[in-house]
Structures are given as C-alpha cells and as structure tokens.
Amino acid sequence: MMQARQRDSLFVASVKDSLGGALVAFALACVMVGLKVDVASGRGAELFLEHRWLAVAIAVALVFVVRLGMNMFFWKREDAPSLGLSGFLPKGGLGDGSTNLLKYGMLVLAVALPFALMYYLGSRGSRQYIDLAILVLTYVMLGWGLNIVVGLAGLLDLGYVAFYAVGAYSYALLAHYFGFSFWICLPLAGILAAFWGIILGFPVLRLRGDYLAIVTLAFGEIIRVVLLNWYEFTGGPDGLSGIPRPSFFGLEFTRGEGGFADFFGLKYNSIHRIIFLYYLIFIMAMFTNFVTMRLRRMPIGRAWEALREDEIACRALGINTTNTKLTAFALGAMFGGFAGSFFATRQGFISPESFTFLESAIILAIVVLGGLGSQVGVVIASIVMIGGFEMFREFEEYRMLVFGIIMVVIMVWKPRGLVSSRTPSVALSKNAKGISADLVQEGHG
Amino acid sequence: MSTWDNNPVLKVEHLTMRFGGLTAVGDLSFNVGRGDITALIGPNGAGKTTVFNCITGFYKPTEGRLVMNRSSGDKHLLERMADFKITADAKVARTFQNIRLFGGMTILENLMVAQHNPLMVASNWTIGGLLGLGGYKKSNVEAIETAKYWLERTDLIDRADVPAADLCYGDQRRLEIARAMCTGPELLCLDEPAAGLNPKESLELNTLLQFIRKEHGTSVLLIEHDMSVVMEISDHVVVLDYGVKISDGTPEFVKNDPHVIAAYLGVEDDEVEQVEEEVGIV
User: Fold this and answer.
1) Distance CA A220, CA A77 (A)
2) Which fold has domain B1-91+184-257?
C-alpha cells in the first residue's frame, strides 16, 4: 500500500514537472522553431513567414517524454539506477600497480607500433595510421610540456601555442634564411622558445590566476598576429614552404644513391621517412617525460609543486617564487619549441593558421582531462582526444558534438582528470601510497 | 638594562605600519634577546600579526627599522629585503596563524621543500642534479636525515609519507614548526602556535619550544593568546594594544602591570575611570 502510494506520487510529481518543462519548451519553440522567415524565390525575393507547428509539437513532446523519463527513473527516485551504474565505473585514480602496467604496456606498444602496422597493413595501408600516431605523439609531447607549467607549477597558461609557433617558425626561418639543418635548429628552436617564455614571464608572473590566464592568452594571439602581418619576413598568411626534412645521421630520405634506403640496402619506400619521423617524435616526447620526471625529484620540481599548493608558504620558506615560476615557464616553453620545430619539419609547410587559440585550448584540455600533473593521463587523453577525433572523421559535423559530450562526461565523472592521484616525489617507506587528488591544489597562478 | 637589550638577535626600532588612514602599528620598539623565547601578546586587533608580517617581509613597514643580528656577526636590515630573502639570508622563519602547509604533498616532502635553498646549491641549480652528479645525491640524503630528525622531534615520523592535509590539527601545527626549523633559522616567529590545541598538545608544544631554544640556540618570537603557554615558557613579554606597546618585561612584571590588566583583562564598568586615572590614559 505504502509502496503504491509512493509510486503514485512519484508518477504525479514527474508528470507535473514534465508538464512545466513542456510549457517552457512550448513558449520557446513557438518563436524559435514555429516561425521561420524565408525569402520567397519565386515572388521577387519577398520575405514571407513560414509556420512549422509540427516541429513545435515534436519539440514539446520530446521535452515532455524525456523529462518524464528522467524524473521517473533518475531525478526523483531514491533508488535511481544511476547509483547502481556508478558501481561499474572505475573508482578514484588508477591503482599504482595498474598504472605501472599501463605505462609499460603503452611504452612497448608505442615502440612496436610502426612495425606491427606495417606487418598487418603493408606500407600503403599503414601510412595514414602512422601519420595519426605521429600527430598523437606531438600532442603528447605538447601536453607533457604544458604539464610542467599547468600541472606542476599551477600556472594557467592559455597561450601555450605561442611557444609551439616560436619553435616552428624558428626552424622554418633559420632554414629559409641561413640554410641551417634540422639538427642544428632543434636546440636553437627550444632555446628561442624558452627565451620568449622568459621575456613573457618576467613581467607577467607577478599576476595570479585569471589575470595570468588572460595575459598568456593575449601573448599567444600577439605572436600569431605578428606572424600573420610581418609579410616580408614570415610570409604572412602564405606561410613558409619547402622546409627541409630531417636527415638520419646525414642520410637523406631520398630515392637513389646516398639516400637512407640505398645506404642500408633497402628498396626505397617513402614510408621510411614517416617511420623515422615517428621514432623521432617518440624519442623527443620520451625525453620530455624523462626530464620532467627527474625534475620532479629535484628541489626545483618540488618547489614548483609547493608553489601550486601555497605560494605564500613558499616565500616564507625562502623560495624565490619569481625565479621558480620563470623556470617552469621557460622549460615548458622549451619543450613547446622542440615540438614546434618537429611540426615544421614534418609538415614541410607552416602558416599562422596552425597556431590559433584552438590549439592552446586542445593542449590544455588534454592536460586537464588527463589529470593535472599526471604523465600517463596526458598520454591517454591525447589518444582519446586526437586519435578519437581523427578516427571518427566519417561522422563529420557530429564528431564535434560527440567530442563535446565526451569532455563533459569525463569532467562530470572525474572532475580531476582521468589519472588523478599524485605520486610523492620522495618517500621513506617503500610502499608509499599515491595522494588523492582531492587533497592536491590546482594552483591559482 | 635587561638581558634582551644586551645582545638582541632582532631590534625593532620605531616600527610604524599604516594602512591608508589606519595606523595598525605605531612607533613600536622592542628587542628580541638571543636565545630567548619572546612573546608578543595583546587583545585581538592589537597589531601583533602586522608586526610579524613586517618582520618576515610580507608587509613593507611605513616607517622604522628592523635589524637582524646573525650570530655570525652579519647585520640584515629586514625592512629592505624581499620576503624570501629574509628566510634565505637573514634566517628568520615563520609559521602562520591559519596553517599553511602544502596539503597535497607528503609530510616528508613538506620538509624537503623547506630545504630548497641548500639543495638548489648542491644540485648546481638543477643542472648537476639533472646530470646525476654525486654532490646532489649526498645532499639529498642529508636533507632527508634532517627531515627525519625533525619528524622524530615532533612525533610525526610514522606518518612521513602521508599527505599533510590528512593530519589532524595539532599535528599540522607541529609540522609547520618542523618545516620552519628545516630552513635552519636563527629566529623562529610563531603566529599563535597553541591556537586550537588541547591542554596536552599545548604542553607538548612547550616542551618542543624549550627544546628548540636549548638544543639549537634558536631564538623564538611568538604571538600567543594562551596565557599558560606565554607565562610558562617565555623569558620576555611585549604587550601591544591598538598598535602601541603598553608593557615590556618579564612575565611576572607584565602580569602585574596595571596597563596590561586594563587593556587585556578589562575591568568592571564602574572601575573604568579609576583605572584609567591610575594608568594615566585620561
């Protein structure tokens, strides 16, 4: 009896609420969906009003039914099935053991990937996948670079793509004007990007939080606009083409005598260059990871994390916070610069269009979705974001929608990113546990 | 001439701090004796924390001089130094009224961050450490030993790998003191270290402070409301009210000073005029 009454009231309440929702939907749909102004092609381009009452009815009915369903089964029920559902989702961070397994599994997979693809798909079929893997790895490297700034030091940088652009243009311009090779330009690009990081950082790092974010955003745009408008020097919107390819210890990936294939007695195949690029970005990304992980155990890395936790306490402990922030900024910028010069040599052509704010946003999204400060998280997020995005090309405009929904779902389900526990940088006992993300601060600039 | 005037570790001279029209601290002078435990007391809003913030560089004083005399003979004028240099060079460490630990880092990490400056030198500003040169490894081990020493002193050694935010309140207070001591200070400034502690913890704190003073020769300057702590362990008490010093002396002297009684404990309404006359406020 009790049960029946409750059911009844649940149903009545749900219907009432849904009717309210339907009413609001009707009011909105009447104007927005029901009336459509169109140009009559036949009658001398005259404007006329088209009524679409069926569409209004569908919209209202849809709102009513969906809202009723949500009310009945999720929102108003005490034993909502969604509670049962959450049991199936993995809880908290990935455990230490599984993270380790995942890490080495991914490493082995990454090393073997081109050969596995070649074996199964042949050189023709595997090319697009290796290309995609190169793209993913580029974003992994960018994510790891930005992770130093955002994840460890807690400085919100919305203009990271500026350093990517500085790296790319450093290489392209040095090659264009001085004919420098990739291997000379790679360190130079990193140094120049770090230099710009310091130039930007010095006046800006006194700012905190939102203010820092806005200034970095502006800096990213300034670099892009300068590249776009300095036509004589950078080629403006036409970009720079004919950027030289990297060589393998002096061996070019060309057909015929003296080329890579000729030297190793292989049959020339353009896939060699692609595989070389894959391993090049793989090594560069792993170098980024190695340096970052090592720095985390250094005083400077600990100071970055302490800065993210509490800047005032850092100053009270005698840490020069300006310099500490600056090193994080410069180092993050340097890895961005490396990735940029790789991007330039891979594409062979760059233009300011590749360095829009959207790029910064994607890199930041990778870092945030992966879990601030987590290296494995960045890899997973890059694979999901970049790989997934490219894989579902056939869905055309819907993929943007799916992409958005996935981001919302991840952020609702795991607000601190996919891998959200923090490993202590130093421990007395061997089996020290990871630190739950709830305790870790996100930093306020 | 009292003992603290003979060889002061810190001389506060005519310190004035104004925020717009409000004078938080007005022409305050006192000495902190070397090896003493000096207490700065006063009712709420008397300007105690402002004095602390001036000493540790978080505020730049409007007027006045703060002279830190290192045991090495070096003199530092604190009002001219950047806040982080005051800890790094002048060796003044502080804790905060509202505890400021690195909550997402372990207790050991908190103490390692406190040894940032010597470790930075040992790692050749990261470059040597990154290349794996031996000097850094040795210093790192030493830093861990220092951290362990302070963890043992503060009874936190069992929880070294626990995030600081997981500690209970009393432990967090002790950890903050341990962290300040890891910077190797000559003057330790504690902002209400006993606030929120139960009587037992308060007693342990007294022991810890006595130990710090005795074994490490560190002078202690503390703000405190808990009179059991102040009267028991301090050698020298300075009383502030509305930013002005109203008394300065040994705990016994201060306890019986009518200025202090009037300002701190208050008097019955009908006695106000009488006390004011005695004290000479009117």
Assistant:
1) 48
2) Rossmann fold (3.40.50)
